[in-house]
């Protein structure tokens, strides 16, 4: 029988302590292991918010599937949006291993009780926004999510491996769109620049509040749910993205952005945290639209869920009859 958190200690120490030692030894927590209730709650919160973000995140891009400029672009965009649905499903499944019910999680999203990423409350008025989302939003997602492949909860860490592989394809499809526009006509280059201007700040806000205003970070880092702080990941993203913008010949919309030799990082301007808080409270440019669309889609899909449940019941009854007859 494999060892569990509860039987690691030779001396009588508290379960909390054994749990922390187990994590400090870089061992994974699995669904049947003992865990502090707060660890379980934190994970359900983070994983379900992450799942909701993937599901709502399909909307800004789905908006452009019918208007993609070529068949190749359309196929890639459909595949990307479909991948996001898949990410949502793996993540809901990971949260279910912690005892969360899928129906409750979905109900919390639909009622507006649950959060999803701030970034998906911004509009996509031009095709270049699809490039900017792939490049910047998926780029930010990669910075934030690659360390989650090493998060302490096994099912979440394993789900993130596939998610990150797909995100890296998404990031490249976005960068390729930006490259085509940046090397195109002056109007196309302008379109790319305007999309970059729209998405740069929201992408930086996506990493969450500054470390000194992040109530969950300290405990989540101790439990190795989070491996890096919000500010560290934001800085990593800025450092990674500046040369990519230079390569495209586009300008990041921040007059305070400059290389700091001493720190070995780029400095950047103050971020609008009041805007972030407003978006979280439901007052971003597209919050109402996103929620209304999700609720409508859920209601429109009721017949599919009913048909799938009826089919599953029928299969179950058939199998039971076959077992009885055997
Ligand atoms: N938007 O104490 P903090 C994607 C909330 S999917 C909204 O730092 P934590 C993609 C936070 O929840 C993108 N809320 O929290 C999909 C907390 O509120 P509660 C999503 C945010 O959890 C499709 C409060 O602010 N990625 O990339 O330690 C296409 C205080 O924050 C945001 C993930 O979910 C935000 N941006 O750290 C393309 C990754 N930031 O819950 C791309 C997994 C913070 O206490 N999640 N809040 O009421 C994480 O890594 C962490 O949960 C966060 C926040 C870094 C996001």
Automatic annotation (TrEMBL):
GO MF annotations, alphabetized: phenylacetyl-CoA 1,2-epoxidase activity
Keyword Membrane: no
Coiled coil location: none
Protein EC: 1.14.13.149
One Gene Ontology CC term in the entry: cytosol
Keywords of the record: Oxidoreductase
GO terms for biological process, alphabetical: phenylacetate catabolic process
PANTHER family: 1,2-PHENYLACETYL-COA EPOXIDASE, SUBUNIT A (PTHR30458:SF2), PHENYLACETIC ACID DEGRADATION PROTEIN PAA (PTHR30458)
Protein name per the record: Ring-1,2-phenylacetyl-CoA epoxidase subunit PaaA
Biological source species: Novispirillum itersonii
């Amino acid at each position: 029988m494999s060892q569990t958190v509860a039987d690691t200690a030779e001396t009588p120490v508290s379960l909390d302590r054994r749990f922390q030692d187990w994590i400090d030894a870089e061992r994974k927590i699995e669904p049947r292991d003992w865990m502090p209730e707060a660890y379980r709650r934190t994970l359900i919160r983070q994983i379900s918010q992450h799942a909701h973000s993937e599901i709502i995140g399909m909307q800004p891009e789905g908006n452009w599937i019918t208007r993609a400029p070529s068949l190749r672009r359309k196929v890639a965009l459909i595949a990307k949006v479909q991948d996001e649905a898949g990410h949502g499903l793996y993540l809901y499944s990971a949260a279910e291993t912690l005892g969360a019910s899928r129906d409750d999680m979905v109900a919390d999203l639909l009622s507006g009780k649950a959060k999803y990423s701030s970034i998906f409350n911004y509009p996509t008025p031009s095709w270049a926004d699809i490039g900017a989302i792939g490049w910047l939003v998926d780029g930010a997602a990669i910075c934030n999510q690659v360390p989650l492949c090493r998060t302490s909860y096994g099912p979440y860490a394993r789900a993130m491996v596939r998610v990150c592989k797909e995100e890296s394809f998404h990031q490249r499809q976005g960068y390729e769109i930006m490259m085509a526009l940046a090397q195109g006509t002056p109007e196309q280059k302008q379109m790319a620049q305007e999309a970059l201007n729209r998405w740069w700040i929201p992408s930086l806000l996506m990493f969450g509040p500054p470390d000194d205003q992040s109530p969950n970070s300290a405990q989540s880092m101790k439990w190795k749910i989070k491996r890096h702080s919000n500010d560290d990941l934001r800085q990593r993203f800025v450092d990674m993205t500046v040369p990519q913008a230079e390569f495209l010949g586009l300008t990041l919309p921040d007059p305070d952005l400059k290389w700091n030799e001493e720190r070995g990082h780029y400095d950047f301007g103050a971020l609008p945290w009041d805007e972030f808080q407003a978006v979280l409270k439901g007052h971003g440019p597209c919050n109402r639209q996103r929620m209304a669309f999700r609720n409508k889609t859920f209601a429109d899909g009721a017949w599919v869920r009913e048909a799938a449940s009826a089919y599953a019941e029928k299969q179950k009854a058939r199998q039971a009859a076959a077992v009885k007859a055997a």
